[in-house]
Amino acid sequence: MATKKDITQKILDLFNKNAEVVVRKFFVCEKHINLFFIDCLINKELFASGIIGGINKLEESKGSKEKIIDKLEKELIAVSTIKRIKEEKEIQEEIFNGGVIIQIEGEEWLLAVNTAGYSKRAITEPPTASVVRGPREGFIEDIETNISLIRRRLKTPSLAIKRLTVGERTNTSIALVYLDDIVNHKVVKELEKNIKSIDIDGVIDSYYLEELLTKSSSKFFKKLGNTEKPDVLTAKILEGRVGIIVDGSPIVLSAPFILFEDMQSPGDYYDIPQRTSFVRFVRFVGLILAILLPGMYVALQSYHYRVLPINFLISLLSSIEGISFPPILEILFVLFLFEILNEASVRMPKQLGMALSIIGALVLGDTAVQAGIITPPSIVVVAISGITLYIIPNESSEASLLRTLFTIVGGVAGFYGIFLGFIILATHLVSIQSYFAPYMAPYAPSVDIDKKDGFTKKPLSYMSTRPQSLRIKNIIRQRSKTKSQGGNADGVN
Amino acid sequence: MNKVIDFLKKRVWIIILIAGILFIPQSFNYQAKINMRVLVTGIGIDKTENGYEVTAQVIMPTPGSESGGSGARLDFISETGESISEGVQKIAYKIGKTAGLSHAGFVIVGENVLEENLVTLLDFFARDAKVNPSLMLLICEGNAKDTLEQTGKLELSVGVDLQKVFIYKQSSLNGLVMPIEEFINATFGISKSSIASGITIAPEGEENTSSKAQNESGGNEQEGSSQGSNQTQAKNARIKFYNEIYYFKDGKYIGKLDEEYQILGVFFTDKTANNGEFKISGVTGGILEDATVGVSFTDKKASTKVKFKNGKPTFTFNIKIKDIKITEMLNNDKPSVNLYNKMDKETMNVIKEKIKEEVQNFIISAFEQAKADGVDIFDVGEKMYQTKTKEWKKFYDEYGDNYLKNLDVKVNVEILNIN
Amino acid sequence: MELTKRQALFLITICFVANKVQRLPSLVSSALGRHGFLVFFAMGVIDVLFLLLALLFNKNNRGKTTYQICKTAGGKFYAKIIYVLLGIYYLANALLPYEAVHDLFANILFDFLSWETYSLVFAITVFFVANRRLKNIGRLGEIFYYTIALSFIVLLVLGATTTNYQRTLPFADLEAKMLIDTCLTYSLWFGDFLIIYMIVGKVKEDGKKLGWQIILMYSICVIVISFAYIVFYGLYEHLSPSQNSLISSISQFSLLNLEIGRIDWFFVLFFQIGTVVASGVYLHLASQSFQEVFGIKDKKYIVLVLVALIYIADIFVFKSIQEGVSIIAFISKYFAISMILFMPIILLITEIVANKKTLKKYNFDKYQILYQKNKQPQKEPRKELKEKEAVSE
Asked: pTM for the whole thing?
């Protein structure tokens, strides 16, 4: 049997000399008991009352036949999670996760007590997903809190949570959350396989995982959904998707992902269906405008002025008279300025926000036009495109790049280039699959039953099935009511 | 092959570089370069000794961000060439910019060009895919260049958008729109006859020469909003109503209808003209005594019918006029109190009959004049071929191109609701 | 399964319509003038009749592809010949929409365009589309179908409201010989139902085979296309032969153009998506045919070669319309019409033979298994039957 000193040293050797692992020693019931923990990670109150208090009570049970480890584990330690471990990796994991390792002299097993008490952010409304009506909770960086937010909403025994770890040095906790009797288990297996095959030193944010889980050669279009809101994730899980919660990131991923998910917003489900349908149509048009408008403007000016009516053409000619730059350079320049403004506004201190707005509006808007560098129509075009870009924030990165690409294509090849580019883009999109689900569902392939929550949204009473595009097991979501269950508010039939 | 693809996938920049080298320089050559292009909105053609004089009405925008095009002015640039295409090219050389004909709305042909075959002349416009086939043909007395320059004295929206103006005039029985495509098609049809409208732009007050003319073609009554203009030319010109109608056979000019009642006759048979006004005089009966009555209507339908009897055709125009309103009544050209009383049935019937008589007179007089010149201005032959093919073929085999002189034309006028 | 029924229906409809509203109407009008719609109608009716044969073929395919059926009936060599013929037909049909897009962009939308260079981009796009799986091409057709249909209807309505219908009168005042000759000359543009032979065995039919929906859609398309020709001729009459394409010409007279500009160009572009899809479909089917013939695993090489052929044909062979039309007329009169009229009949007979052979083999095998189980000496089925008959007598 290894001596106490050997075991203590062994445990300390698992950590760096400067890892700040504290060793607290006790001598109770003629046994040496050592506690290993990192001070800044533990909940000190729980440590004092739950663990120290429990150890102190050991003296009272001196003489009992029960082993100290059993007594501590079953009776005395007043903490919710306690388990026996002995593997080195487990010891490291527990200590790094804010746990306390209790090593008892003469015992092979160690007790790991969860006393995580590091400070975490309060639950607030996410900035990119605010709603007029609906829940305002958002995920935070702590995985346990995030899981609790889901647990509170899905009070069903079929909710399954599969824990994994990824990242050699970060040992980031990952939780796959799904409903066992609904989900397509092939997706779960595939995700698990892919996560386990990741060999990287650290995963800091869920985006790392998103990229690493995208196996196809084209990573331009994301293959996993993301959200910051627990109600959204709950809805996705109820539809048969798998939620992927990453410790340290408030953005939770989901799989499978179809492009149309980004066209939907949480607020859609807390508003009348007619309004939702209208707004979705506006979003779609906005997205198209964001991507294609600058390119089409360049193409119209450079090659296809014949499309424009004479009055507008005269006005356009008046405004571009004297501007020596070709339209493509002009638009690219304005787009570039817009991107600079964008980046600066994200990073700059709030106190300077007003100054930047004035610079942006006056210098770019007015002075540049008067100086003959850019024309008013180009500002209008880029402004519309810029605003509509954020109509679907999750797609803004891709849309921004596509916008630039289509602008160049429009300037080089006019409508011809835009036309062919659009076809190539569409062909690529319909060929993508995200974890066995077609990317452009429910429109390509056409799944009529899923279109109830497509561009037009039907009332909730119509949504009796889950999305069939996800190829899940249990597709019945609700059963339709019989007539006898109806009745008006007065109770008179 | 797979190795090549893998190599290229890793070095996408090579593909982008090649594409850039191939396309970017070419794209700068192929751009329409709108600011290097002048917009031709109208063309005038005159005959010269050595060919043709082509005058282009061009929009010259002035720098600045004026809204609604008010910063633009009309310029007129003339060049001569052996053909029209050469003339247009030379215009481009003169101003140093490419002439864009895609927004051209009308072609004014001077009277001296009428010695030529108009179809061969207009072939240039018909063949160019970038020219709008609805390009309108207009004939002017005298010089097309002078008439075109008069458009500079109209309001900008009128001068540039003559086509819209004429469409408006046509629907209200005051004008005729003859697209070049229709002119050419009519020439190659059975009747080989075609018509075109005349255009006269005169200083204000001189535009209406006939006493039967109703409205003044003011700029604010035309299509398009009235806009303030920076132009130095005074806007004091107006387009004349009831312009002459020139008729052609096989593309060659034969004659014209210049009497207003004849011109009205042509308009009455046009299917797109469905509202208008005209005056009838010499109405006697009921409470009227040699009265002049002005009428307006908002719904007119024109159709044709062909009947063959014993191998001889009768071509009937059926004109249905609805909702006729009396706009003025002057007994012996003087107002009279009793004319404000409610009209009796007899007076109404008298007016009705007079309207019928006048409309019949309009149409038949136009037809007879053209018939005398051997021109089938109402395309009667084509319509007979379309509806009674067998009988027509027999008839044509017998009379050939002289079929016009051997057919009867009737006009049935039906009036519903006269107030 | 590669395609759903709906996707198959949409693809065939797109291919049918996209091909026929480009240059074909102006070519037909130069031959028959106002009676040209009869060509569309007559060939459309022939197509529908032979479509019935193709659907019958599909109904009795027993889950096999055409190649498997031909191989069973006549062996590998026979199957390859059929596939070579089908491949050439599809390749020729892929060229027509390619030419149409060339026409639209190089001659109409742009003032100047170096088509030799810019056509490369189009060739790459068509390669990209044709190289996808049939399932993905089906999805592409599905996603764009309503846009294409709506654009076509809008353009047709814009033209129909301004056309002069009387110009197309009288109906059918022509000799039958002229009509037949014109039908033969332009038959290459028809016969889109032959697509069915390449998707047989690849359509998810869920018990019910492709049937009345496709016949109905086809018939509606025949009527609509014939009407489109009437609208086109009514607008241009004697100038129809000089127009490049029906779809870009029929909306030119609309008064909307004066007010809000040539907004109809956007609808033309949306419609042209269908033309690209049609070219991609035909190219894909051609590559599939040749893939079976040459036994090449990776389809992309064949697609590449075929795209290169089309590119070369477009740039160098079909330099002028006259040259192009004379070559197409030759192909039409001797090859295309034969394919339309005889291929369905040949394949139907092939299928009957194949099914009989399969049934015979199945019965023989069944008896083999039965006898082995019972450990009885093997007897030929006929002998056993004769014995049974003898006993019953």
From this structure: 0.86
